[in-house]
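To illustrate this point, we now present one chain and its tokenised fold:
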Amino acid sequence: MTATLLRTAADLHARARTGRRAVVMTMGALHEGHATLIRTARKIAGPDGEVVVTVFVNPLQFGAGEDLDRYPRTLDADVELAGRSGGDAVFAPSVDEVYPGGEPQVRISAGPMGERLEGAARPGHFDGMLTVVAKLLHLTRPDVALYGQKDAQQLALIRRMVRDLNFGVEIVGVPTVREEDGLALSSRNRYLSPAERRTALALSQALFAGRDRHAAQEALRARAREVPATRARAEALSAIGESRAAADAHAVATTAGGPAAVRAAARLVLDEAARLDPPLRLDYLALVDPADFTEIGDDFTGEAVLAVAARVGTTRLIDNLPLTFGTLGDAS
């Protein structure tokens, strides 16, 4: 399948529409993560619908000293990958097409949620992101727009903007795609040297350690609920792998763990990576409520996001995993 390259909104609007239009927004340098988004969009749009992939490196999202000039631009390869993955059109407008009057004087504000984590590390980033997303939603006029869960805070803010400002579009999040070694796919991975890549694996390894600690804790809690608060409970807990005394196992199952244990397990991996050569330089490790990206407390129940950001060499990487605490279920 060949995707049609379109440079102007007028060309896009001139296309006949017979079904649902699904849009995948990217900054180009497409990889398998983007391909997964496009394939998912194809399924949602159906055979009678249309999949539009936008390719636009948005200058408003880059702060001073960030990598706007060196951000990879591979439009020919992007069009080819989009077509192979089920895209009908690639909308690749110029900066003048998106911002015809220069940098916009009126912009979308991400509010307090946009000042946390990534927003604190990259001031103004989310205002620029939401502004271009709003513009591209207007320019492409989709029924549904898809975004990767790797950028969890971005996805949460887009959902909030669409809800708060009454955009008539469905927002779909698509799970993170990882390479075989666990590293989350990113256009910035190409900047890593072999040694830097080995260090960068600590991001996903830290998340997996937190997830595994949480899963083990939930297994203990579940087993503790299944037997009476008697000697039988202690024996049952010991039988599933706790090497400590039965009384200690009971205490672990009923009181310890939770968000604090998840954070500690993940941080242990990151602390070890800080001593590697080259070292990992941590920006943040956070366990947050996806509704507002504030840190969750030890009594939290429901969906949460374990998120990490760090630098290896000159490359900044982010990653996250969803977790569920309390009565709603186990780790995702």
Remarks:
- The beta strands are 4-6, 21-26, 50-55, 89-91, 144-148, 170-174, 280-289, 294-295, 302-312, 315-325.
- The mean pLDDT is 89.
- The longest strand covers residues 302-312.
- The chain is about 40% helix and 20% strand.
